[in-house]
Design goal:
Blueprint lengths: L1 H23 L1 E6 L1 E3 L2 E8 L2 E7 L6 E2 L1 H6 L6 E2 L13 E12 L3 E11 L1 H10 L3 E3 L8 E5 L4 E6 L11 E7 L3 E8 L2 E7 L7 E3 L4 H4 L5 E6 L7 E14 L2 E10 L7 E2 L7 E6 L4 E6 L21 E3 L2 H8 L16 E6 L4 H16 L5 E6 L4 H6 L7 E5 L6 E4 L3 H12 L2
Parallel strand pairs: 4-9, 5-8, 14-19, 15-18, 22-24, 23-24
Antiparallel strand pairs: 1-11, 2-3, 3-4, 3-7, 5-9, 6-7, 7-8, 10-11, 10-20, 12-13, 12-21, 13-14, 13-17, 15-19, 16-17, 17-18, 20-21, 23-25, 25-26
InterPro entries: Peptidase_aspartic_dom_sf, Thioredoxin-like_sf, Thioredoxin_CS, Thioredoxin_domain
Protein name: Redoxin domain-containing protein
Organism: Pedobacter cryotolerans
Length: 424
């Protein structure tokens, strides 16, 4: 009896723990497009939007034109460890990006990037994108790719609830954020990396042939590896069974490519299922589309703005009520009354000290000035767009005028700007 009670207690405890974890998951969905079969996503870099190829096994790298556009003018020489471990890339310089964001879940300050040049730059320019983004950018989230529906999900701190624990396998996150895990090829264990630059299903290096022993040999060509548009001679093999986690992908094309440092699985794997990469816990989930049910992500309605208080708003209200940065490059104020927007964070002592003072000002200037506050930790894409690097960051603007920026918690300056600029 006691044994049964203990088992029941463990089951209940585990269920509660799993439910608690799932209820804490913050998930964000973003659309992506494909460029020559590769995934292209929109990023906000130093406040400028650009399109980047997702290259989990590579390095973040920008075209010189885009680097100039976002205001980069200081470079250092690259070293051997700066270069990708999986393929060669032509880059002689590196630099620091101030802010880069993908939605609100993925954000980085001072991210190191390479500057593309030569043939690599020409190929990326031909694709019509601004550069490539590496796996290291996603190190703080769980990245889920749904190729069938053209969606990328970023979730914190756990996997999305629609990915089952039974589809999980252990892996390694190599230097640079490169996912590595084990699959079976004809029942033989093979360690592979997940390379989103590769458009095929599986590419093996020549020394792996001994273990695989492919049974059909036809000569052909495959696209060049890395950022080269050249083709290289290779041998393509059919008739192999690939097992990934709990799925069997039979009779899929396997490519033998001597240019690779390690065997890779590419985007062809995602023709059959979704992949989730938990970078922090080194876990990989792979699940068929047929067994995946993605619940609709509910968008919260816009809040109602109240006079005489500091209204807590999100990016959605900022775009709706203040400035639609997705439609206008210049700050075009949409309101009909002066506003003050306070960007803050819980860890920012000056922000917390200033907050009650802002509430007093909101009461004092009720019906004359509308007060807002935005949590900088939760609205990272917006902060990147506005190039916010220090808090508290105060934006003050009235209809028909350019915004006035004040950094710090000097309330007397805020009052002076209200009296001498916003209300005149």
């Amino acid at each position: 009896m006691m044994k049964k009670l203990i088992i029941l207690f463990l089951i209940i405890t585990t269920t509660v723990k799993v439910y608690s974890q799932q209820s804490q998951v913050k998930i964000e969905a973003s659309n992506f497009k494909t460029v020559e079969g590769r995934i292209a996503i929109n990023l906000m870099v130093n406040g400028i939007e650009g399109t980047f190829i997702l290259d989990l096994a590579g390095k973040t790298a920008l075209l010189p034109e885009f680097a100039e556009k976002i205001g980069i003018d200081s470079y250092t020489e690259t070293t051997l460890q700066d270069l990708p471990t999986v393929r060669k890339i032509a880059a002689a310089k590196k630099f620091k990006i101030n802010t880069i964001a993908f939605g609100n879940n993925v954000f980085a300050n001072t991210l190191t990037s390479l500057l593309l040049e030569g043939e690599a730059a020409n190929y990326i320019k031909k694709l019509g994108v601004s550069g490539v983004i590496s796996g290291s950018f996603f190190k703080n989230v769980v990245l889920t790719i749904d190729k069938k529906n053209g969606k990328i999900y970023t979730s914190t701190p756990f996997k999305p609830t629609f990915m089952r624990l039974t589809e999980r396998t252990s892996g390694d996150i190599l230097l640079g954020g490169i996912p590595e895990f084990e699959i079976k090829v004809n029942n033989k264990p093979t360690k592979v990396i997940f390379d989103t630059w590769e458009t095929g299903t599986l590419s093996l290096i020549s020394k792996t042939l001994i273990a695989v022993k492919p049974n059909i040999n036809t000569k052909g060509k495959i696209s060049g590896i890395g950022y080269s548009a050249d083709n290289v001679n290779a041998e393509a093999f059919k008739g192999q069974d690939i097992s990934v986690v709990n799925m069997n992908l039979k009779n899929k094309l396997i490519t033998i490519n001597p240019n690779l440092v390690k065997p890779v699985v590419g985007l062809g794997l995602l023709d059959f299922g979704l992949i989730s990469i938990d970078f922090q816990n080194s876990k990989i989930y792979y699940q068929s589309y047929e067994s995946t049910k993605i619940n609709e992500i509910i968008t919260e309605p816009l809040i109602k703005i109240e006079q005489g208080k500091v209204n807590a708003i999100t990016k959605a209200e900022f775009i709706e009520y203040i400035y639609d940065y997705k439609s206008n490059k210049d700050f075009v104020f949409k309101g009909d009354k002066p506003v003050i927007i306070d960007f803050w964070a819980t860890w920012c002592a000056p922000c917390m000290k200033m907050m009650p003072e802002m509430e007093k000002l909101a009461t004092q200037y009720k019906d004359k000035v509308v007060f807002y506050k935005i949590n900088a930790d939760k609205e990272k894409e917006l902060c990147s767009k506005l190039n916010i690097m220090a808090l508290p960051y105060i934006i003050m603007v009235k209809p028909g005028q350019k915004p006035i920026i004040e950094i710090g918690n000097d309330v007397s300056k805020i009052v002076s700007i209200i009296e001498n600029d916003l209300l005149k």
